[in-house]
Request: fold
Amino acid sequence: MVEDTSNNNYKPKVKTNNNRPKSVYSWTVNDVQKWLRRHCSDYYQQYGTLFSQHEIIGRALLRLNDNSLLRLGIKDSNHREAIWREILKLRLKTDIMEIRDLQRREIYSMAYDYYIA
Reply:
């Protein structure tokens, strides 16, 4: 398919290198709902409204534990365990991304210092 460039308002599509997902720390209630639907689909119908009613955002999601899931209203221990497991995976993934960012910043800083000296 060839795009028509005769229009004066034509702007070429620019690819960005920022393919990183949105940080969990900046997730909204809707982002958490999407995560819950995708990663805890067996329980989304039962507990999606609980997460929404309690306005669970990304930061809060990462702080949840078994006890807080129980207080949230998730009584079934098997359900809590499954959701908790997914939260732990998310925490691990988030921690790995933060470590990589720190390493990247350190490398850039070292390179900058080298070129300045």
User: Anything to note?
Assistant: The chain has a mean pLDDT of 85. Helices lie at 29-39, 41-53, 58-63, 66-72, 77-116.
